Structure formats: C-alpha cells, structure tokens
Q: What sequence folds into this?
C-alpha cells in the first residue's frame, strides 16, 4: 500500500476527495480542512493499493495540483485493516508487479545527475577493474562490477526514450558518457604513474586466461547484456535491490572501461579496440532490453487499468459513498 498526502486549494478539495472515495483501490480517506499553511489550503490523506496508484495520481495531476498544491507519496510497510485488504483485492494484478510510472520517473530523473558521488564510485570501480585485469583476478572484476553505478543512467535513458523525453534521455546519456570518460582518464593517469614507478609492465596483459573475456566480445556478451537489462528494469520497477546487484555482476561495462585505461597506458592498442567493442555491445544490449521491458510492462498494465469511478450513491454532502 501507498500513503498519499495531497495539499489542495480549497476550491479543488471536493474534487480531490471525490477521486479518492470513488476509487475501489483507495481506503482510509481523511480530509483536514484548512490544515495547510504554505501553500494555504486543505490536506487530504488516503491509502491506495500500488496497483491502482497510476490512475489515482493521473487524476490528481489533472486537477493541477502540481502547480497549485502538492502530492506526496510514501510507502507503507504495514497496514492492519480489513478495508486495506479489500482495496488491494479490488485492484488488478499483484503489488509486487505494479509499475508506478510517477515513481519511476522521479527515480530515473535522480539517476541522471552527474554528482560527485557517482563519479567517485564509477572511478573507483574502473580502477579496481583495471587492477583485476592486470593481476588476472576475477574476484576483483566482480567487485568492480558490484561497485559500478552505471546502470542508473542506462535505466534513465531507457525510460526517457520510451517517454520520448529527449531532455531526460540526453541527460542520462551525457551522465553515462562523461562518467566513463572521467573514470577512464583517472584510471589511465594512475596506470601511467604506476608504469613510471615500474609497478606494472606490458607483459601483465599478455597472458591472463581468467579475465580474457573482457577483450573477447561475442554473441554471448550481447545475450547476457540483454538478459541483465531485463532483470535490471524489473528489479527497479519491483523494488528488488538484491536482483539489481546480480545485474551489476552480469555486465562487462566497468571491466571493459578499466581494461581500456590500462591497455592505453601499456600500449596494448589491439585491446583498446576490443574493450571499446565490449563496452558498446553491453550498453547496446542493456538499452535494447530496458526499452523493450518497459514497453511490455506499459502494454500489459494498460490492459488491466483500474476503473476509477466505481458505482456509488449520493450522500448528504454531495460526495459518492464507498461501496
């Protein structure tokens, strides 16, 4: 269940309450007249099943509350109520499968920020991957995959492409490309310094049977990236963070970036090209799978849209009664 709090101008409050009470997926409706101070207005609160949230939020948006008030949505960990159970039964599908598009839009928009934390985590992940490539240590490669934050911008790009939001998709692409460029540059500088001190040498990239997959992109690289892309989008929409960790371990984006840096530093030019292909193949697979998964979810959920306006009878205050 989700808890929704709406701050509404007084003239819009009746419409807000009507949206809530007429939806069979909504329960525990509370109206607090004059409770809002800034902006001035009323406060309406209610709980809604996740499966019915899209329709309710769309109706509230249509009332112009984003501009004149506020709509706040919070996750409810526990609700002990027969009414809440009935609301979830009235909503189509299962809560674990429900995709709340407003929530996904907010989450993906946050993933497009080129923040210092994003750059630091990506640079650290690429450096660990570079060390793993030099030492031929798969455990370091896996650790770098887990640390890499690059799937967030990929998911944001997929959502922006599906929504035809060129601004969101452009920001996501810029965050991804700039992030990798900076991470590779930092790792290259560290590798160059290490070579100057004699800590690393060209022969370290000659024979490494355990991590050679980084520079051998093939059809399986693309297939794994596609499968990981599907799993990644599903983990975000279903809020399964454990599954998202598995996605990070599946794709070879960060290891490829790390190998590019050390290959340049050690003048292994043939590996630079192979790593670039590996990086491109993985990103392409993630994007294709991400857009496809979101499209399928949109089509499936559109066939199970909840009827907002349930049959009701008029009451003394002019609002329909709950069934």
A:
């Amino acid at each position: 269940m989700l808890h929704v709090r709406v701050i509404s101008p007084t003239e819009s409050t009746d419409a807000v309450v009507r949206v809530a009470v007429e939806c069979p997926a909504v329960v525990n409706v509370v109206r607090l007249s004059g409770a809002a101070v800034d902006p001035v207005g009323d406060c309406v609160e209610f709980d809604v099943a996740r499966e019915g949230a899209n329709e309710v939020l769309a109706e509230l948006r249509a009332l112009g509350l984003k501009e004149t008030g506020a709509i706040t949505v919070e996750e409810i960990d526990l609700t002990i109520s027969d009414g809440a159970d009935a609301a979830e039964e009235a909503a189509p599908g299962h809560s674990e499968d429900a995709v709340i598009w407003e929530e996904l839009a907010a989450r993906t928009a946050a993933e497009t920020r080129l923040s210092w934390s994003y750059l630091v985590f990506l640079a650290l992940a690429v450096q660990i991957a570079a060390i793993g490539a030099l030492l031929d240590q798969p455990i370091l490669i896996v650790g770098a995959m887990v640390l890499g934050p690059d799937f967030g911008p990929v998911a944001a790009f997929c959502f922006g492409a599906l929504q035809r939001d060129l601004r969101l998709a452009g920001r996501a692409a810029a965050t991804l490309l700039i992030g990798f460029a900076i991470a590779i540059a930092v790792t290259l500088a560290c590798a160059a310094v290490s070579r100057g001190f004699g800590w690393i040498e060209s022969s370290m990239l000659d024979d490494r049977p355990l991590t050679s997959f980084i520079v051998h992109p093939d059809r399986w690289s693309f297939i794994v990236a596609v499968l990981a892309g599907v799993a990644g989008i599903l983990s975000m929409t279903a809020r399964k963070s454990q599954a998202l960790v598995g996605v990070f371990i599946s794709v070879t984006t960060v290891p490829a970036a790390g190998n590019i840096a050390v290959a340049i530093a050690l003048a292994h030019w043939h590996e630079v090209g192979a790593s670039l292909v590996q990086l491109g193949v993985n990103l392409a697979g993630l994007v294709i799978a991400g857009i496809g998964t979101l499209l399928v979810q949109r089509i499936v959920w559109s066939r199970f849209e909840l009827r907002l306006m349930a049959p009701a009878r008029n009451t003394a205050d002019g609002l329909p009664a709950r069934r």
Remarks:
- Strands lie at 2-8, 26-36, 41-48, 70-75.
- The domain at 2-98 is CATH 3.30.70.260 (Alpha-Beta Plaits).
- The first helix runs from residue 10 to 21.
- The chain is about 60% helix and 10% strand.
